[in-house]
Predict the 3D structure of the following.
Amino acid sequence: MRVQAGYLKIVASALIWGTVGAFVRWSAVPPLELSFLRLVIAGLTLSLFLPREPFRVPLVSKSFLLVGLAGVLFAADCVFFFTPCS
């Protein structure tokens, strides 16, 4: 039963991701603003699921820089994806 629920979630996320281009085309929001709003909403949503325990994260570590680079690359990916769609 758990496997079927996993497949259902994968299919649902693929359908949602596949229709993003159509919604971008129909919206009147510029691509840069749409990318910003998408990343802010995603960040706020993900912050709700983070653990509430206090922990220290070194701001200058290899993993922190790697995550920061991944965030910058994902933001560029959003801009480059939404620009041709709109």
Summary: Residues 2-85 form one domain. The CA atoms of residues 11 and 21 lie 17 Å apart. The chain is about 80% helix and 0% strand.
